[in-house]
Every structure is written in C-alpha cells, then in structure tokens.
Specification:
Layout (H helix, E strand, L loop, with lengths): L2 E5 L3 H12 L3 E5 L11 E4 L2 E4 L8 H9 L5 H4 L2 E3 L4 E5 L5 E3 L3 H11 L3 H23 L7 H4 L2 H8 L2 H5 L2 H6 L5 H8 L19 H8 L2 E3 L4 H13 L3 E3 L4 E7 L2 E7 L4 E3 L2 E4 L3 H8 L20 E10 L8 E5 L3 H9 L10 E5 L12 E10 L7 H18 L5 H4 E7 L1 H8 L31 E3 L10 H21 L1
Helix pairs in contact: 1-12, 1-18, 2-18, 4-5, 5-11
C-alpha cells in the first residue's frame, strides 16, 4: 500500500483521504489552518455559530452515493431536511417572491406574474432535469480520459440535443421561455454559485434550476460544518492522519515523480503519491519547480477566475420574521451588475446579494432572542480591499440590505460582526485573484475543458477540489474525490 500526502483539508482533500484510507493506504493530510474544512469552515463567536462558506445543500444524491461507500446513510447521519420555502427573493422595485421548491405551487406563482409562465417553468425545469440526469449518469463522474464511454450510441443520442446549449448563453436560453425580468432572474441567479454570469455561462447550466424547483433545497440539521465533521469521523475510523497548522511549501520531485513535501518547519517527508487540494494556480506556480509545472503562470492569462465576495457574519438582536432561511436580493440593473463584476472588474455600487438566516432552521446557532445572519455580496476577482475599505463596503451594503429587506434598524441591532473579503480569500486560501470559488464555469473552463485531476509532468501528482473536474461546490468536490481515488487505483493496477 502507498504512503499518500494530501495538501489541504478542504472537502475534496478530506473526501479523497477517506476513500484511499479505506483501501488500506497510509494517508496524511497537511492543512495550513488550525481548522479543517477549508472554505466550508466554522466560526464560533459571541455565542453565534456560523458556517463560513457553503449554506445550500444541493444534489443530495451525490452525498448519498459518497457516504454509502462507508455504509453511512447521510440523510440519517446529518438529519437532512428539505427546506420549505426553498428561498425568498427580494427585488429592488417589486414585491418579494417566495419559491417553495414544489413545482406545482411555484408554477402558479410564475403564472401570477406572467401569463403562460407557469407552463413555461415546467418545461424549463423538465428540460433542465433531463440534462441533470444525463450529467450525473455520464459526465460528472468522469475525467474524460475514456472517450469511448461517452461515444456509446445511447449517450451520443441523448447528448446530441445538448450541443446548441453549449454555445447559447443561459440568459438567451431563459429569454426563450420567460419575458418577465424578475422571473428570468430567478432562473439565472444559480450561475453565481458557479462563479459565472448568466450572460456568459452556457445554457447547459439550466440544469441548476432542476435542483431548486424539482429535487429540492436541503439542510443538515446542525449546519453545513456537520458535513466536515462527518468526513473527519470517517477519516478517523480508517486511520487518516491530520496535520493541522502545517503548511506545505514545496512538492519535491525527482525526474517525473513527486517524491515528498517540504513543510514550513523546514522538515521533509517522503511519499509515493501526492494530492493537492490547494488552489490549482497556487499549487502549480508556488509549490512546484518551473520545469514540472503543467499550468505555468503564463497559461493563467487565458483563464478566468470566478467571483470574489464580501462575506459578513452577523449576530442580530431580536427577530427578523420576514426573512426565510435563504434570501436573495436582485437589483433592477441585473446585466450591469454582472458586467461590473465580470467585464469591467470594477467594484459595483449596487449589487445583488444573498442573505442566509440559519436561525430559521437551527435556533441553536444564536443566543436566545437573536438571529444568525450571513451576507454574501459578489465582487469581481482581483480587487484589493484592506480592512478599512472592507468595512466601508460592508457598511454600504448593509444600508442597501436594510432598505431592500425592510429592516430599517438593522445596523443598530448588530451585536456581533465579522467580515471576510477578497484579501482574506487570497491570504487564507492562496486563492487565485482572491476568488471565492475558484475558476469560473464558463464553457472553456467546464467539463472536458476544466483542468484535469492529474499533473501532466509528475506522474504521481494529483489535484482534487473546486479547481479541477467537475468544479465548484461541495457535491462537486465529493465527486472530484471519487475521480481522483479511482485514478490512483487504476495507476497502481498498471504498475
Ligand atoms: C462564500 C462561499 C459560499 C459557498 N456556498 C456554497 C453552497 O451554498 N453550496 C455548495 O455546495 N458550495 C458552496 N460553495 C463552494 C464550496 O464551499 C467549495 O467549492 C468547496 O468547499 C471547495 O472545497 P475544496 O476541496 O476545493 O477545498 P478548499 O475549501 O479550497 O480548501 C483547500 C484547503 O487547502 C489548504 N491549503 C492551501 N494551501 C495549502 C498548503 N500549502 N499547505 C497546507 N494546506 C493548504 C487551505 O487552507 C484550505 O483549507 C461556497 C463557497 C464559498 C467561499
């Protein structure tokens, strides 16, 4: 069995460690932070408990499949519950709309806003659902190195209809179904989850609406960090070694093989296989010597980072009854907001944003008589915000939020506040261009075109997590772990 080092204890790193340790490998995870989980972290402050990153539990089947390999029923273990309502949307100039996550009811809501939109929603979601099933069955769990599997007649037949959706931007596709801007926004916002814009993302990602309208929006009873806790529990069971507060500063190599890691205390450790769960740009340009970089600095000029963000973790006194668990606020100038972020790369003055109120589902995340609020404002990658600038931006958006969601005394009621911005994404996660999510999911960075999970220069160096296939999001990182574990197994068989 092999000695395997994993650099980074994000979802991808933790999930891969478990799969490999279960097969009998000797696995060690190095994590520079003192806490595991990476972007899916936990913040406990002033009596409040915040999930620092992910808050939407989507694609439950992916979680089920991953944990079933360890004989764990994840729905039971994490007490997964379906949220109803799924989310509430606030608009700059219209009344809010609540999405139930039940297609019959949501179709009626759409119909009440635009004649014919109810049936159109059904058609749109059904079409998205077909793409989603196809993706799960054939495209998400592959690294595209076995093209014969994708060229089978049935897969080809089912996939042919998707080709026009590769070239059509999502917004154009949505406009064929629905005219009303507010309803279009509801079908387009999930592109932000993929770090991209509905004006650039391929229409293939209409599959995302099958998640919130058909499959459902879920939540683990004790919050998203309970996923990390469960991953660690499995790792402990199979003997994974965790080395928190230990940074890898170099991957050592000899000819075309990685041979070990150099740690921040100056010591080195020898390994048979190395897997990096760190940001791919950082791994390639900082951890590897130039002659063994598959993705050297110049290759990144052609790449596009996903959004950065301001995150606010707020403890608020009193109740906020008109907020649901998930809340979105969409500005009227929808297109300009995306252009500011993706084209001009300028700080927007007005922005759509996301607010989560975890106390709606889990009151234990705040002291009695308080609410737990997480705010995410998408920003362009590459911006610099020092502490003062971050505070000024946060104040600006809190004022907007207070008006948009009709909470005039919001600022006076904040009893705990922690901010996290682009500089923090860069410094804490070594994230390329301070992106919150990693490479955006434009077509040339999706599926076949996303960086592959194995180095082209070092035979035994692999990549796992949001930077590589299939991409951004907790379920995607679980799939990424399965792809890498399978590749390592196959490589061992060939030896
Ligand atoms: C604000 C926000 C909201 C999100 N919302 C959702 C959501 O609602 N639903 C969803 O499914 N997904 C969401 N995501 C995306 C999801 O959280 C990420 O895609 C996923 O957690 C990334 O995991 P990863 O495996 O790529 O590792 P990361 O989380 O990127 O972790 C990598 C780890 O490597 C460590 N590391 C880096 N360099 C070194 C080194 N040299 N030595 C040692 N350790 C190192 C880092 O400290 C870090 O812990 C969100 C992300 C963010 C930021």
């Amino acid at each position: 069995m092999s000695r395997i080092a994993i650099i980074g204890a994000g979802v991808g790193g933790l999930a891969t460690a478990n799969l490999l340790a279960q097969k009998g490998h000797d696995v060690t995870i190095y994590e520079k932070a003192d806490q595991i989980g990476g972007r899916a972290g936990l913040l406990q402050k002033d009596g409040f408990t915040f999930d620092t990153g992910p808050s939407w539990y989507l694609m439950p089947k992916v979680f089920e499949q991953y944990f079933a390999q360890f004989d764990i029923d994840v729905n039971q273990a994490l007490h997964i519950q379906r949220l109803s309502p799924a989310y509430k949307v606030f608009f700059e100039k219209h009344d809010p709309v609540t999405i139930r996550g039940a297609l019959d009811i949501d179709a009626r809501t759409f119909e009440s806003i635009e004649k014919g939109a109810g049936d159109q929603l059904r058609r749109y979601v059904d079409a998205g659902d077909k793409i989603y099933r196809l993706a799960l069955d054939h495209f998400l769990y592959t690294d595209f190195t076995a093209p014969h599997k994708l060229l089978r007649r049935q897969v080809l037949r089912e996939s042919l209809g998707l080709i026009p959706l590769l070239r059509t931007p999502l917004h154009q596709h949505v406009s064929r179904y629905i005219s009303n801007q507010s309803l279009q926004q509801i079908l387009e916002y999930p592109m932000v989850f993929l770090g991209t814009s509905p004006f650039k993302a391929p229409a293939l990602y209409s599959l995302m609406s099958a998640l919130d309208f058909k499959e459902g929006v879920f939540y683990p009873k004790q919050g998203m960090y309970s996923i990390i806790t469960l991953l660690k529990k499995v790792g402990d069971q199979y003997g994974v070694t965790y080395r928190p507060s230990t940074e890898v500063i170099r991957v050592i190599h000899r000819r075309n093989r990685a041979t070990g890691v150099l740690l921040d205390d100056g010591s080195t450790e020898q390994y048979d296989v190395i897997i990096s769960n760190a940001d791919l740009h950082f791994t390639e340009t900082q951890l590897l010597a130039p002659e063994v970089q598959t993705h050297p600095e110049h290759s990144w000029q052609r790449r596009e980072p996903g959004i950065s963000a301001i995150l606010m973790y707020l403890g608020v006194k009193g109740s906020l009854p008109h907020l649901e668990h998930h809340n979105l606020y969409f500005v009227e100038d929808w297109k300009k907001n995306f252009e500011d972020i993706y084209e001009r790369r300028a700080l927007p003055r007005t922005a759509s944003l996301y607010v989560s109120k975890t106390t709606a589902t889990d009151p234990s995340t705040a002291p009695k008589g308080h609410e737990n609020i997480f705010v995410l404002v998408p920003l362009p990658a590459g911006v610099e915000l020092d502490e003062r600038a971050l505070q000024a931006e946060a104040d600006h958006y809190l004022t907007k939020l207070a008006t948009a969601m009709n909470i005039p005394d919001l600022k006076d009621r904040i009893v705990s506040q922690t901010l996290f911005g682009p500089n923090e994404f860069r410094d804490r996660f070594y994230s390329w261009e301070g992106s919150a999510l990693g490479l955006s999911h434009i077509l040339r960075q999706s599926a076949f075109w996303r960086p592959k999970p194995r180095s082209a220069k070092l035979k035994n160096l692999y990549y796992v997590g949001a930077s590589t296939l299939p991409g951004v999001g907790v379920p995607m990182c679980l799939i990424s772990a399965e792809i890498v574990a399978r590749k390592i197994k196959k490589a061992r068989r060939k030896r």
